[in-house]
Amino acid sequence: MSDDARPRPIGAIKTLAAFRDRVDALGIALHCDDQIAIGREAPLAQSYTLRDGKTVGNRFCIHPMEGWDGTADGLPTELTHRRWRRFGESGAKLIWGGEAVAVSHDGRASPNQLVIDRRTVHALRALREDLVMAHQTRCGPADDLLVGLQLTHSGRYARPRRADRPEPRLVQRHPLLDARLGPEAAGVNPLDDAELASLAETFVDASLLAADAGFAFVDIKHCHGYLAHDLLGAHTRPGSFGGSLENRTRFLRRIVDGIRRGAPQLGIGVRLSAFDLVPYRRGSDGRGQPEAVQLPYSYGFGVRAQVPTEPDLTEPILFMRMLRELGIELCNLTAGSPYYNPHVQRPALYPPSDGYDPPEDPLIGVARQIGVAMELKRAVPELFVVGSAYSYLQQFLPHVAQRVIRDGGADAVGIGRLALSYPGFPSDVLAGRSLDQRLLCRTFSDCTTGPRNGLVSGCYPLDPFYKERPEAARIMALRPRSRRH
Ligand SMILES: Cc1cc2nc3c(=O)[nH]c(=O)nc-3n(C[C@H](O)[C@H](O)[C@H](O)COP(=O)(O)O)c2cc1C
């Protein structure tokens, strides 16, 4: 790594001119506007009418952000309600899924993940209503607020009964990732075609329940290494769900068919890891380094087989064209996985307790995702594209976001970690209020350290509510000594 590319805290960059200098020094494309416009004509305040006639009232989106705080039965708790209410109060007009909700018990990523079934659907309806009411109280009418539900099966990352016991459901053999699951994975056979066909039906059933609960759309989650994303990379899988791109996307087409038959009015979206890189691990200096893999690398989606530390957008473009042919307009682009290359998925200065120090300046990771989203939006302009990985930009976020929207590089800017520390951020930007610097997410990764250690997620450093919870002291103790303040 060149000296220039070594991580430098963005907090030390005080002005837009210095930010631009840093971006230039890194040799990345991250353009920004000087002034943030306000009022009806402001780029971030523009509404967008989708093809089905629904309106999204502005260009801010709240990403799905799980809290690991559901009950053993998959029901939301008061902590879940608080998070969703804050999403509603944010002023963003697109709520992309709230959080990942498992379509079946065996698909839960933790024993505290929400589940959608006949027993829980009433509670998910109440969760949505709580969010909408919070929006109305704080921000006014909700007729241009679009709220979806993210549906997932955690696949190889399923841990439905105990946070420390993987119970993987594999769709392909992956020499590196299987080994990381430990001995549990060794004896597990990948799901066969009949099991996958049945799981597609389970997604359809869950979608119909989501429609009953009043959600405007469902997101059929295809990202972050979970089952449907794993399937997109299942080049070596035999049978009708592996091998060709046609086969690897069959699962999604089946689900879409079923939804169209059962709930034709329900919107459909896809959150997609638009590119991937090989798994990384902690090197001897603490920094992340790519695993050595055999070439061609034939296990990922949107990754160059011969240089698997770089994206390849050939198939993601074909996938997005397929979405267009299926009449799907909503597409939320993310990348990589929090399990095996977190610096790609959520650029951060500080790793969670099970992570590695950033192998590059996190701004490079931000620029990589923003650049890919821009390229894909240009390739398939008919889709409504939401971009990810903006939180690390902190006070420069509005400047970059406005420029991306103005340039047509995405249709909405998604907010993830920042929505936990500073949910009112979109409202403040849209109203032209100065930002509350104390609430800007500093990417300490405590929101991930918590769940990695069996605790609920939340913004422990900046949200007074979590700061005062008993878990906060345990999380502090899990930080390296130098960061215990
Ligand atoms: C604590 C936590 C929970 C998350 N939960 C979800 C989730 O339920 N579904 C999902 O698709 N992504 C989830 N993500 C990923 C975020 O939605 C987002 O893609 C990522 O944090 C990068 O965006 P940001 O830079 O704005 O944080 C989560 C991330 C974190 C840190």
Summed up:
With 485 residues, the protein is α/β, with parallel strands linked by helices. It is built from 18 helices and 13 strands. The structure holds flavin mononucleotide (FMN).
Q: Major beta sheet, specifics?
A: 8 strands, parallel, barrel
Instruction: Output the number of helix runs.
Output: 18
Structural class computed from helices and strand pairing: alpha/beta
Which range does the strand content fall in? Answer: 5-15%
- Provide the CATH architecture: Alpha-Beta Barrel
Mean pLDDT: 96
- Considering DSSP H and I runs of 4 or more, what fraction of the residues is helical? 25-40%
Q: At the fourth CATH level, what is the homologous superfamily?
A: Aldolase class I
What Rg do the Cα atoms give? 21 Å
CATH class placement = Alpha Beta
Strand order of the largest sheet: 3-4-6-7-8-11-12-13
- Uncertain runs are none
The separation of the N and C termini measures: 30 Å
Tally of domains? 1
Query: What is the third-level CATH name, the topology?
Result: TIM Barrel
